[in-house]
Amino acid sequence: MSASHTLVLQAPHLDVTRVTELSILAGAANVPTIANGVARVVGCNPARREVVLERAEALGVDANFVDGERRFADFGLLVSDMDSTLITIECIDEIADMQGLKPQVAAITERSMRGELDFSQSLRERVALLAGLPEAALAQVYEQRLQLMPGAQALLAACREHDVKFMLVSGGFTYFTERLKAELNLDYTYANQLEIVDGKLTGRVLGDIVDGEAKRQLLIAKREALGLRPDQVIAVGDGANDLNMLAEAGVGVAAHAKPVVRAQAAYRFNVSGLDAIRNLFL
C-alpha cells in the first residue's frame, strides 16, 4: 500500500463530525470508526494531503498520512529529545528560576528552539548565568517540577512490548537524563554535563556540546550499532536543534513543536500525547 493511502486522525476528544469532514476532504470512500481517540482513514487521495493537514489543524485534530501496512514492531529504535518532548519542562529554565533569572534564560531558550540563535553558544551563555547555584537546586527541579509528557509512559510501554530500543538524546543535562534512565528503564541516554565543584555549579559545561549535529551523529551511530536501516528509526523532538535527527530518521515526528520544526517534519502532533506515535502504526 502506498505511504499516502492511510490518514491517521487523533485528538483527545475526537468526534465523528470532524472525522467525517476530514475523510470526505481526503477523498476516502468510507468514514472509519473512532477507537480511543484514533481514526484510520484508508483509501485517501494523496493529492489532497496538504489541504487535509491544514483543515485538520484548524479543527484541532492531529492528522498524519502513513504507510497503512507498517507496524510499530517493524521499528528497532526510537530517539527522543527530553525537554518539552519526553518531559513537559525546559530544565534549564526551571534551574534559572532558582537564581531569579527564569525570564532572561527562558527568552534565550525560546529563541534557540526557534532556530534564531546558535544552540551551542546560547547554551553556554545560559549555563554561565547559573554559576554559584547549589547542586541541590537540580534535585529540587527534578523532584518538584519535572513531569512526563502525557502519553510518555504508554509510548515507553509499547517500545518495551515490541522490542523497540529507546534513546534519550538531549541538549540538556546528564543530571536529568541519568535519573530518567534509571526511573523509566531507558535503554540509552546522552546529554551535556554541568561542571560542579564543591557542590556548586561553575557556570560551565564539560566536554563537547550535544547540539543538533551531535544528535544526528548519535542517532546514526546507534542505528548502525543495532544493525538497523534508516526506515526502522523513529525520532521525535520539538526544537530547531532536533531538525537534523528528525531528517535522519525514517519517521521524524514534531511533537508540540516550534513552527520551524512543524514545517519541516513529515509527521507532527499538536494536541495529542506521545502515545500518538505508537498509534500511527498497526
UniProtKB/TrEMBL annotation:
Keyword Magnesium recorded: yes
Enzyme class: hydrolase
UniProt entry keywords in alphabetical sequence: Amino-acid biosynthesis, Hydrolase, Magnesium, Metal-binding, Serine biosynthesis
Pfam families on file: HAD
SUPFAM superfamilies registered for this protein in UniProt: HAD-like (SSF56784)
Its EC number(s): 3.1.3.3
Protein biosynthesis among keywords: no
Reaction equation(s) it catalyzes: O-phospho-L-serine + H2O = L-serine + phosphate; O-phospho-D-serine + H2O = D-serine + phosphate
Cofactors demanded by this protein: Mg(2+)
Similarity comment text for this entry: Belongs to the HAD-like hydrolase superfamily. SerB family.
The name this protein goes by in its record: Phosphoserine phosphatase
Biological pathway: Amino-acid biosynthesis; L-serine biosynthesis; L-serine from 3-phospho-D-glycerate: step 3/3
Gene name of this polypeptide: serB
Gene3D superfamilies per the UniProt record, alphabetical: HAD superfamily/HAD-like (3.40.50.1000)
GO MF annotation terms: hydrolase activity
Source species, domain of life: Bacteria
InterPro entries: HAD-like_SerB (IPR050582), HAD-like_sf (IPR036412), HAD_sf (IPR023214), PSP (IPR004469)
